[in-house]
TrEMBL record:
Belongs to the aldolase class II family. MtnB subfamily. This is Methylthioribulose-1-phosphate dehydratase. Its EC number is 4.2.1.109. It comes from Streptomyces albidocamelliae. Catalyzes the dehydration of methylthioribulose-1-phosphate (MTRu-1-P) into 2,3-diketo-5-methylthiopentyl-1-phosphate (DK-MTP-1-P). InterPro entries: Aldolase_II/adducin_N, Aldolase_II/adducin_N_sf, MethylthioRu-1-P_deHdtase_MtnB. Binds 1 zinc ion per subunit.
Length: 202
């Protein structure tokens, strides 16, 4: 995708996001229209393609995408995700090229169990988020939910650990990011795997 974020780029991004969403929906991670995805189309000015609000995320087409600015406001397209401003904030503060938000049972359950954050160590799967498998403890932060995206963005920025490309939002779900949609997907699958493991209470 070029830096300009034109109509063709937006449709291309929509096709990518629709495919990613179909995959996550098939896992049961985007039930009942929940969740949203984004990809950065340009950095200066910041422009993201974000999934449209309220759609069944298992049935998206390339047209179900909205171009938004650094505040999450629509620049082109219909009504962006209610959480578009948080996607823009994550992309700006972490440098990520793609952001995933899913409503998984494991993230909400573990957020309840460990409101101060989820400690992870000695797991081969940690290599999937760029950490050593052994000897290093990594914390997956848990932040309180809010319907105010500015407040939620402040909490996420304050809590996030640069070693972990994800944050659990208590009573809500999971935010994960990566350099591009493919890496964000891999990070999401790894973090969700770690949460599911912790939930088994090993
Ligand atoms: C059951 S939908 C919950 C929504 O409020 C929200 O949390 C969500 O993830 C989807 O919002 P959307 O505006 O469709 O991107
Ligand atoms: Zn949500």
């Amino acid at each position: 995708m070029s830096a300009g974020g034109g109509a063709r780029d937006l449709a291309e991004a929509g096709a990518v996001l629709a495919a990613e969403a179909a995959r996550f929906a098939s896992f049961g991670w985007m039930r009942g229209t929940s969740g949203n995805l984004s990809v950065v189309l340009s950095r200066d000015p910041l422009r993201l393609a974000v999934t449209a609000s309220g759609r069944d995320k298992g049935e998206l087409t390339s047209a179900d995408v909205v171009l938004v600015d650094e505040r999450g406001a629509a620049v082109q397209g219909g009504r962006p995700s209610a959480e578009a401003a948080l996607h823009a904030r994550v992309a700006a503060s972490t440098g990520a090229g793609a952001v995933v938000h899913v409503h998984t049972v494991a993230s909400v359950a573990m957020g309840r169990r460990k409101p101060g954050g989820i400690l992870l160590r000695d797991l081969e799967m940690l290599k999937g988020v760029g950490q050593p498998a052994h000897g290093v403890e990594v914390r997956l932060p848990v932040v309180a939910n809010s319907q105010d995206m500015a407040e939620l963005g402040d909490r996420l920025e304050a809590a996030r650990d640069p070693r972990m490309p994800a944050v659990v939002v208590a009573g809500h779900g999971l935010y994960v990011w990566g350099a591009d949609p493919r890496q964000a997907r891999h990070h999401t699958e790894v973090v969700e795997w770690l949460l599911e493991l912790e939930l088994t209470g090993r």
